[in-house]
Amino acid sequence: MLIKMVPSVLLVLLVAAMAAMAASPPKPVDVPFQKNYVPTWASDHIKNINGGNEVQLSLDKWTGTGFQSKGSYLFGHFSMQIKMVPGDSAGVVTAFYLSSQNAEHDEIDFEFLGNRSGQPYILQTNVFSGGKGDREQRIYLWFDPTKAYHSYSVLWNMRQIIFFVDDVPIRVFKNSKDLGVRYPFNQPMKIYSSLWNADDWATRGGLEKTDWSKAPFVASYKGFHVDGCEASMPNSACPTLGRRWWDQKAFDDLDGLQWRKLKWVRNRYTIYNYCTDTVRYPARSPECTRDRDI
């Protein structure tokens, strides 16, 4: 009897293992720049290297630059490997974000705020829904993002938006439509990356200005990864909704290990969270009640 049961047990374990593998976010892969992305502006400040698998953006006193995805997407998993501007990068912002195209736009932001040499980069995240933002969170990174490439990614489905740095979740934004909070669910978004001057606010609230004697400032991108439902019109239906790995029940919430990683980030590296800013927001935003007490 035991001998007969073993193959069945092994089969169950095999199926479970395969399901777990299918539910894991894939690693970023090198995709030629020209395949998925086009310049947004100042194409002469974009340099393709390594057969187009790597892109360098440069910023000088006259202009920055950026690129965008050819397609628009409604839900999915999107990641980029980025190496930040080294040295004195005060006033410089390196960005990777998703954004819709209308006035009441939805947006999911990674913004890396440069600093004087020797000071840590600040990573600011934000979520806009229905044109409303003001949901900034800021952390210090636990590594030097100028020394090597690191992966920055977004998982976006109907239940939640998760921001990842490498495999570490640094932020979760839950769908709180039942609390009267608009959630990005019906506006396709393009993927953008940009390098620009923001010395009116980016470093110490604008006190540190960009030192143009250090220009050009260069940020490098590779590992362009897109796994989303491509759509072109507002209110487009996603034909694969419920059938993609990022839309499975496993991604309705973080698992235990991911919650522990998020707690580690909050305890050690978080320097600002709009949910706890009672001066700027005396009335706590409704969606903050969905933010687990970890």
Automatic annotation (TrEMBL):
Glycan attachment positions: 115
Biological source species: Picea sitchensis
Record keywords, A-Z: Apoplast, Cell wall, Cell wall biogenesis/degradation, Disulfide bond, Glycoprotein, Glycosidase, Hydrolase, Secreted, Signal, Transferase
Gene3D superfamilies listed in its UniProt record: 2.60.120.200
Catalytic class of the enzyme: transferase
Family under the similarity heading: Belongs to the glycosyl hydrolase 16 family.
Span of the signal peptide: 1-22
Role summary: Catalyzes xyloglucan endohydrolysis (XEH) and/or endotransglycosylation (XET). Cleaves and religates xyloglucan polymers, an essential constituent of the primary cell wall, and thereby participates in cell wall construction of growing tissues.
Keyword Nucleotide-binding among record annotations: no
GO cellular component: apoplast
EC number, UniProt record: 2.4.1.207
One GO-annotated biological process of the protein: cell wall biogenesis
CDD domains membership: GH16_XET
Active site location: 107, 111
Localisation per UniProt entry: Secreted, Cell wall; Secreted, Extracellular space, Apoplast
Protein name per Swiss-Prot or TrEMBL: Xyloglucan endotransglucosylase/hydrolase
Domain GH16 stretches: 20-221
Top-rank taxon, per record: Eukaryota
